[in-house]
Specification:
The chain contains 28 helices and 25 strands. The strands form 5 sheets. The chain has an 8-stranded mixed β-barrel with strand order 17-18-20-21-22-23-24-25, surrounded by 5 helices. A 5-stranded mixed sheet has the order 7-6-5-9-8. A hairpin with a 2-residue loop joins strand 5 and strand 6.
Length: 849
């Protein structure tokens, strides 16, 4: 590293050399320019003088020899000044007086002889002046063949500039060399003086800085007596002193810093933390005790308007007196807070970190002085409103700041963990439950029905399936609205649930339809249960907004395994068909299928089989498109493609044939035909938005699916990034690892994936865990049933899904958005896209975006 003295000397040498070089170049250029200008003028004067001399000598009648002697004399004089002069005879003179011995004229001389214009030629080291000798009136007496201004000859004057220029450069170089040592010598003197003045002060500062080994030493560092002699250096040093002062203000001990780092590591929210947040708080209390004495830590949660939970975490087992004392202190602090008016609903839970050892007895004054709390004006996420810790802060103010920071961060972490814990539990529960009625949902019904069918087949016993449909429910909804309709459904479902035994299963299958499984039951037992449901509903009524007591009746269909059918789908099909027959024959009835009924039902299924197979053969499968809108921009950004069968007199919706097509194993062929028609239409219209395609997980693992989809997007020039496959749960896949491979292959090709009906089953979460999902479509029943009183659970589920997906970077789409109120609500929740009749109904047209 260079010293200041050497730096000044080196800088001076470089500066001097640079400056002298510039001066040398400038002076040399100026000198050369002057020499050239002067040489040009002198050459012209020599030519003029020579011309006049020739004219006057010839005028006096001198002979050519006399003229030659005069010119030779002048030539010798000019030669000393590095000039050469040559006179050339032209053709006009040669015709009268003949040729003489003279140098050959070059191209430039001939041009001047013929043009009669003087010419100056410059090279690096010479200047050449060509001057034409023109005939005057007096010359015509001797040169009878010439006219006035005819060129009789030329004078060629050439000057060698090199000696003069080089001599000037030598003089400049000599002068600069003589001056060069002067600034170097001056720099040595100046650098020595500056170095002596600064080095002493810097050495003093260095010794003081080297003596710093801790934060306390930094506070003792003195620098006011140090002077660096120069205003600029002192200004820089003032900045250094200010930096040191700021370091004094913010510096903390190493053990406190390590303590904060360890705590921050424990503030990272992980799945383990969410799973057992109390255990994590216990570890944090232990970490606090590594740096300072802390006896307990507590957090306060608002459960509802009048109920509060306090979780107190003790380091060791406290005595009864200590527990009562801390409870009294916490109550006093809460009563001093404006948020709390009534603490009758205060629930206190004590947790002990190290229960095998006892906590020292603590008096009330010590507990009150050492309890530091942080209370908020209103609850935050997770319902947390306060947090506190009992710790001795008397010996170090810096540690008090650390504890304040810990409390603020810990409050946010605990609140977030509690909220995520609650959301997770809600999602786990409502993945199997209908949020409105708390009955099992359709997905669980089918899973349990499949399981029960296999079990009954193995153990050779009967069970019954009941399908229950509320009569005239659509009329009730239309007259009194969805809010009243939801309350009506809740009342009916509660009665149905109470009729079934605990070991039986009942589910909400659809809007106003319920399905149940009665274990170890024949036709007679099933009929008795159905009859009790009808009798129970006779006592039920719900007062409508207009004061009318609305009653409920139901139509019930029954099917028994194995008497009526041997598969889950056939059992449900029969029971559901009996419901339809009950409704068509007057409603409020219970029907059990007869042999003729069974034959008619399966005959109808056969007719649908023919329609489906014909549609595949004749490619009458057509796409309908339902718009998907960006909630923020209100712009349509995508369409979901829905399968339809085109018949002669109507369009058959997917609900009428998808389940049957799946059962007979042709749904994959139908999906392929649909995709090709969708891509063809998108290509024709140059459509650039996203296209959502419903697809069964089983379809993805067929070996021909990937080659087919590659071929179609290539043929129709479709960007794979615009295609979103909606994974549905109408089929289950046993080999999830195989499905994962195919999904990843498609993802690598650029395709995107969405989960349909998210939240309605366990496999939704399994797919999120295993696959690179881009979108989730929230179950429509949650969306359309979340508005109004009594629907807080649905609202919480949708909110939980929105929070969860936002944290894992997945976009959300709300299905069944049927009015403006729902659209505004999902916007406030952070849902990204909306789909439903309020946005647009399915149509055969694919519109430009």
């Amino acid at each position: 590293m260079k010293g200041l003295k050497n730096f000044i000397v080196l800088g001076t040498i470089i500066g001097t050399v640079t400056m002298f070089s510039i001066v040398y170049l400038l002076v040399s250029y100026w000198h050369e320019d002057n020499v050239r200008t002067e040489a040009h003028d002198i050459s012209k004067n020599i030519a003029d003088t020579t011309s006049n001399t020739i004219f006057h000598v010839m005028k006096k009648g001198w002979s050519r020899n006399d003229v030659k002697d005069v010119l030779e004399t002048n030539r010798e004089l000019f030669k000393k000044a590095h000039y050469s002069v040559e006179v050339y005879r032209g053709e006009i003179v040669e015709k009268l007086y003949g040729r003489i011995k003279q140098p050959l004229m070059d191209k430039e001389a001939l041009e001047v002889l013929h043009s009669g214009d003087e010419k100056v030629l410059e090279t690096k080291n010479t200047i050449r002046y060509l001057y034409p000798l023109k005939a005057k009136t007096e010359c015509l007496e001797c040169h009878t063949n010439a006219g006035t201004a005819d060129v009789l000859g030329i004078i060629d004057v050439e000057n060698d500039l090199a000696p003069t220029i080089n001599a000037g450069k030598k003089r400049v170089s000599l002068i600069l060399l003589l001056i060069f040592p002067v600034p170097i010598f001056g720099a040595l003197i100046v650098s020595s003086i500056v170095s002596r003045k600064i080095t002493g002060s810097l050495n003093t500062l260095q010794k003081r800085v080297e003596s710093i080994n801790s934060v306390k030493d930094l506070k003792l560092l003195a620098m006011n007596d140090i002077d660096l002699a120069f205003r600029e250096f002192n200004a820089l040093f003032d900045g250094f002193k200010n930096t040191v002062q700021r370091l004094r203000d913010v510096a903390i001990d190493k053990d406190i810093l390590e303590f904060e780092i360890r705590l921050l590591e424990k503030f990272i929210i992980t799945s383990e933390l969410v799973k057992d947040w109390k255990d994590h708080i216990k570890h944090i209390l232990i970490e606090i005790n590594r740096i300072m004495e802390a006896y307990c830590l507590f957090s306060l949660f608002v459960m509802n308007d009048e109920t509060y939970d306090i979780e107190i975490f003790w380091r060791n087992t406290p005595s009864l007196n200590t527990r009562e004392t801390i409870e009294r202190i916490i109550r006093q602090k809460l009563m001093a807070h404006p948020y709390f008016r009534n603490l009758n609903g205060l629930n206190i839970v004590h947790n002990v970190v190290l229960p095998l050892s006892n906590l020292p007895e603590l008096n009330e004054d010590a507990l009150e002085m050492q309890t530091k709390t942080l209370m908020l004006d209103s609850p935050r996420i997770g319902g947390i409103i306060g947090i506190g810790v009992n710790v001795d802060l008397s010996f170090e103010p810096t540690r008090a700041l650390v504890i304040e920071g810990v409390l603020t961060t810990l409050l946010n972490v605990v609140g977030s963990v509690k909220a995520i814990y609650k959301y997770t539990k809600d999602l786990e529960y409502y993945a199997t439950r209908d949020p409105l009625t708390n009955l099992f949902n359709q997905r669980v019904f089918w899973e349990l029905l499949d399981y029960e069918t296999e079990r009954a087949r193995r153990h050779n016993y009967k069970f019954s399936v009941l399908v229950i449909d509320i009569d005239n429910f659509k009329v009730i909804n239309d007259i009194y609205g969805h809010i009243f309709g939801d309350k009506f459904l809740q009342g009916v479902s509660a009665i149905i649930r109470n009729i079934f035994r605990k070991e039986d299963m009942v589910a909400r299958y659809g809007g106003d339809e319920f399905a149940g499984v009665i274990l170890d039951s024949d036709e007679e037992n099933a009929y008795l249960v159905a009859k009790r449901i009808k009798e129970g509903l006779k006592e039920f009524s719900l007062k409508a907004p207009d004061g009318v007591a609305v009653k409920a009746t139901v139509s019930i269909g029954i099917a028994v395994f194995p008497s009526h059918a041997g598969s889950p789908k056939d059992l449900f099909l029969l029971a559901d068909s009996m419901v339809g027959s009950a409704k068509s024959s007057g409603k409020d009835r219970i029907l059990i299928p007869s042999t003729e009924d069974i034959a008619d039902v399966f005959k109808h299924v056969s007719e649908k089989n023919i329609i489906i197979m014909s549609a595949i053969e004749e490619k009458k499968i057509i796409p309908y498109f339902q718009p998907i809108m960006n909630v923020k921009t209100k712009q349509i950004e995508a369409y979901e493609t829905l399968m339809r069968i085109e018949l002669d007199d109507k369009i058959m919706s997917a609900a009428e044939f998808v389940e049957l097509a799946t059962d007979i194993g042709v749904i994959n062929k139908m999906d392929t035909i649909l995709m090709e028609k969708v891509f063809e239409k998108a290509s024709e219209m140059n459509y650039t938005g996203n296209l959502f395609l419903n697809i069964s997980p089983k379809a993805l693992i067929f070996s021909e699916f990937l080659p087919n989809i590659r071929s179609m997007v290539k043929n129709y020039r479709i960007n794979p990034a615009r295609i979103v496959f909606e994974i549905t749960e109408r089929d289950t896949v046993r080999n999830l690892s195989l499905l994962e491979k195919f999904v990843l292959d498609l993802k690598f090709e650029g395709f995107k994936f969405a989960i349909d009906d998210f939240g309605s089953g366990f496999s939704s979460f399994q797919y999120i865990k295993l696959f690179p999902i881009d979108f989730v479509k929230v179950e429509g029943d949650f969306i359309r049933s979340m508005i109004g009183s009594g629907n807080e659970v649905n609202m919480a589920i949708v909110n939980s899904i929105s929070t969860f997906t936002a944290q894992v970077g997945i976009k959300t789409i709300a299905e069944y958005v049927e009015d403006e109120e729902i659209l505004k609500t999902i916007g406030l929740m952070g849902i990204d896209y909306a789909q439903g009749y309020h946005i647009g109904k399915p149509a055969p047209e694919l519109k430009h975006i």
